[in-house]
């Protein structure tokens, strides 16, 4: 367990339900035993999310990018309430793709604050899978890395070009422009 200067405990972790074959994430959890932070000595996921939001609130002039859809892609309503920052969706295609209608609404509402992310090796097949997810209304196909995160398929969100351009590059360019030195 690491501590920052203020003494707050910092932990990254995941434990979702029973860790047996009934858990649709069983394979992922068995390959990542160090993700088990279920002991009482660790703060809950919600506590960690609240701590992060307090940091964001204390530093309103800082540009934050909340990775992995603020680490709660299963609850886009909560993430929406907090979204005064940027998010990227690295390693969260599986969660977002299983809720295509809600995800499409999220992308529409926050199109100026969402960045492309993958957490995967940048190979053509990975990009093709992500483009299929974001650009089409295809149904029930494997997310990139299936079944690494769980035993389910995803659905395309069929985002319009205006949103895709922002997610693919314009939002990132906007952030980079804030920090470029003028010549």
Describe this structure in words.
By secondary structure, the protein is mainly alpha-helical. The chain folds into 2 domains: 43 residues, no CATH class; 136 residues, Metal-dependent hydrolases (TIM Barrel, Alpha-Beta Barrel). 42% of the residues lie in helices and 6% in strands. It contains 8 helices and 5 strands. The strands form 2 sheets. The chain has a 3-stranded parallel sheet. A two-stranded antiparallel ribbon has the order 1-2. The longest helix is centred in the last third of the chain and has 19 residues.
Oligomerization: single chain
Adjacency order of strands in the biggest sheet: 3-4-5
CATH topology of the largest domain: TIM Barrel
Question: How helical, in percent, are the residues?
Answer: 40-55%
Shape: globular
Rounded mean pLDDT is 85
Radius of gyration: 17 Å
Name of the CATH first level of the largest domain: Alpha Beta
At CATH level 2, the architecture of the largest domain is Alpha-Beta Barrel
What kind of sheet is the major sheet?
A: 3 strands, parallel
Q: Determine the CATH superfamily of the largest domain.
A: Metal-dependent hydrolases
Record field, number of beta strands: 5
Beta-strand content estimate: 5-15%
Terminal-residue CA separation: 44 Å
Structural class: mainly alpha
Strand/helix succession: EEHHEHHEHHEHH
Unreliable spans: 1-17
List the helices and strands and how they pair.
Blueprint: E1 2-3, E2 9-10, H1 26-31, H2 45-58, E3 65-66, H3 67-70, H4 76-82, E4 86-88, H5 93-97, H6 100-109, E5 114-115, H7 124-135, H8 161-179
Parallel strand pairs: 3-4, 4-5
Antiparallel strand pairs: 1-2
